[in-house]
Amino acid sequence: MYWNQFSESKLLSIEQKILSVLKSAYKTKFVEIKSELGSEERIWTISLNTESPNTPLVLLHGFAAGIGFWVKNLDTLSQNRPVYAMDLLGFGRSSRPEFSNDSLEAEKQMVDSIETWRQQMKLDKFILLGHSFGGYLATSYAISYPERVKHLILADPWGFGDKAELPPRNPPLWVKIIGIVFYPFTNLNPLASVRALGPFGPWLIQKLRGDITNKFDDIFDDKSIIPNYIYHCNAQNPTGETAFHHMIQGFGWAKNPMIHRVKNLKNEISITMMYGSNTWMHNLAEKVKEIRPDCSVDVQIIENAGHHIYADQYDQFNEVIVNASNTVDGRTSVVRILTAKNGSHNLKEDEVIESENEEEVRIESS
Asked: Is the entire prediction scored with pTM above 0.90?
């Protein structure tokens, strides 16, 4: 219990440092939900530009991540519309309930928590974007609640491919190392070894996951911020990680591949599928187009990007998202890419105020 409280406090402190580079005004808060698990839970949420009348954009992060991973995207994406991002239930600062051991039931519990969150946020229809595992959940949500999704954006989504139908993937070196060295000792929870190292966990993440941590070097002088953020996102009771394990077979394949379920999406839900040109995921966008001939499926390849396209080439990523979102609203896209190069990540005099209900408000300096 003490360790969970310490890690949660540490995670909040690190996240505040990450979000301090944002230029846009934002609010963060816990959204209280009554989960399908029968318990009262909290989903940690960041909101930007909520007064805009345009269609909201909702972001779902990937496995073992949190809202801080969107720090290179939030400014640009929220220029002309409300943007919301959450820590998925079981991850980050959100509650850690015990999920079902059944893969489809655990998936449903996560998807239903997103719907309950939507109700609490009083959103009607929105654009839904999911990266990796978030793309898998976003697709499942759109199948279950099609009346809420105006457009579905899948950024290098996990869980689409069927292991029996595809050739073996060639994952990066860090994945192979984890698979060979750590997997037999983790009781099938991929990050158990990292947690077991305690204060040395961030060091291991820095060594093994430079593919993520180095992507933020241009905005953070302190190179320990991202490894510590990843560590403390996953140092607490790993219920979301365990639920994810119940959804996989072998080394990272989905038990219930989305490629066999995407046909259940309503035709009126248009899709944008994005892949990095150097991703180690199977690009199944053309297969999705084949399965859904009467549905709009736009395919975008982000050049010189791997799986983490939102950080690898964030200017290209942001432009694709803004253009797709503006198309939904019938708007002409004029994208001003906010990056560290034009000053959005060099603010010196911003102030963060924390209120009694744990809501933080960014006040832009004049």
From this structure: no
